[in-house]
Design a protein that fits this description.
Blueprint: E1 5-9, H1 13-24, E2 27-28, E3 32-33, E4 40-45, E5 51-56, E6 74-78, H2 82-94, E7 99-105, E8 111-116, E9 122-126
Length: 127
């Protein structure tokens, strides 16, 4: 068994699509639009077959802006090396994205950093 995909709602669909394509090498399908419900989605595929579905609807409620809350908290991307974690974190910071935690080795042995995407979703970048 494997997780097929993870889904995120956004109010700015194309901005989020571009972010995951540019920084994480995702490849998007053609936008799906449901004319009845107003739902619009993209599936973004990554090299290992993992997919991220980003979606929008005409009316969305904002979720909690608290950094620590119940429910899903982050998506982790493995970029293959310590050097890649460092470079991608630096690039995201230079481009103005908030860094939650800078690259480091955690107590459980991961080398990682944590950043926020344009909507404030947490992304863990691991070696």
């Amino acid at each position: 068994m494997k997780i097929d995909h993870i889904a995120i709602y956004t109010k700015k669909l194309d901005r989020l699509k571009s972010f995951y394509e540019y920084y994480f090498g995702g490849i998007s399908n053609t936008k799906y639009t449901n004319k009845t419900t107003g739902l619009e989605t993209y599936f973004i595929s990554f090299q290992d077959g993992t997919r991220l579905e980003i979606m929008t609807r005409p009316v969305l409620d904002n979720n909690s802006n608290e950094l620590f809350h119940t429910g899903y908290i982050h998506v982790a991307f493995s970029v293959g090396s310590i050097e890649n974690v460092n470079m991608l974190t630096q690039k995201l910071e230079e481009d103005g994205y908030p860094i939650i935690s800078y690259p480091r080795t955690t107590g459980d042995g991961y080398y990682e950093s944590c950043v926020l995407d344009p909507d404030g979703n947490q992304i863990e970048i691991t070696a």
